[in-house]
Amino acid sequence: MDQSVSIIIPNWNGLRHLRTCLEAVLRQTYPVRETVLVDNGSTDGSCEFVAAHYPGVRILRCETNLGFAAATNLGIRRTQGDYVATLNNDTEVEPAWLEELVKAMDADSRVGMCASKMLFYDQRHVINSAGISVDRAGIAWDRDGGTPDDANDNTPQDVFGPCAGAALYRRAMLEETGLFDEDYTSYLEDVDLAWRGQALGWRCRYVPAARVYHVHSATGKGNSPLKSYLLGRNKWWTTLKNYPWPQWLPYGPMILLYDGMAAAYSLARGRTCHGVRGRWAAWRSCRDALSKRRTIQSAPRYSARLAFACLSPLASPLQVWRRFRHLLEHADHARA
Questions:
Q1: Whole-angstrom distance, CA of residue 87 vs CA of residue 85
Q2: For residues 82, 83, 88 and 89, what is the CA-based torsion angle, rounded to 10 degrees?
Q3: Which CATH class is domain 5-214?
Q4: What are phi and psi of 273, to 5 degrees?
Q5: pLDDT tens digit string along 172-228?
Q6: Domain ranges in the chain?
Q7: According to the model, what pLDDT value does residue 167 have?
Q8: Mean pLDDT (whole number) for 12-39
Q9: Under 8 Å CB-to-CB from 209, ≥6 apart: which residues?
């Protein structure tokens, strides 16, 4: 039986991207039950443009910028699809994108998440994200980021989770895990959700045939102070909420060491201390994170074994740096 799909697109002053994004959504080979634009208080005429040119797109207007997590949750609560597709406004999806994701989801009832192959919009032969990975030091990164695209690779495989910029979620999983953590505002909320899903026995499938072109960091500019702050804070919230206790003793020192090196590297490159401020904010609010942790672990199907088994092995500091090197190179390319 065909499953109904709701597409949710958060938007904040993304007028320059909306035509490309929505035209691609309208070309999907799989029928879409509803497409919802959740507008975060845009002042660039985004809502007026969509209302005038895309009357089939429902607009949910927010008075202020709620951030990605809360805006997406609003869309999830206001839609009815069996599956929920989340999509950044700065993307262009290929016509079979949704069909390929649904096919992978339909194949196994324990698949609760599907990840797309995201390619850089301005370098369409280079992978932006092939799903998300998290290692035993609590470091999250985009799989295969910066590697050349292999157009012949169409074999789905299990991964930790999807980048929510172009993902498909089973509503039944969202109802069990809870939605995105709205305290995050933006960044790493998809990592947190995927980790909660994995701990409850839900799987994620990476679907390379579901191809998306993404203008990386079009809304949250590359190394903006706010983005650095949120990444530093949300990384520790995610770890405090989800890392299983039995492994804290052997791996806790490595988590602290690797994160300390990351903060030192950022400062050594002459960047501001906003990432350090974010980390401090996370520790100041650790009681709230630990309270959420207790709620997560009290779920009937929660498994500490599964919460740890989904993590990748530790890598050397040089290997960790290589995971993110392509983002610096891409930023240089974009400026050229």
A1: 6
A2: -40
A3: alpha beta
A4: -95, 20
A5: 999 999 999 999 999 999 999 999 999 999 999 999 999 999 997 655 455 689 999
A6: 5-214, 225-335
A7: 98
A8: 98
A9: 96, 100, 117, 154, 156
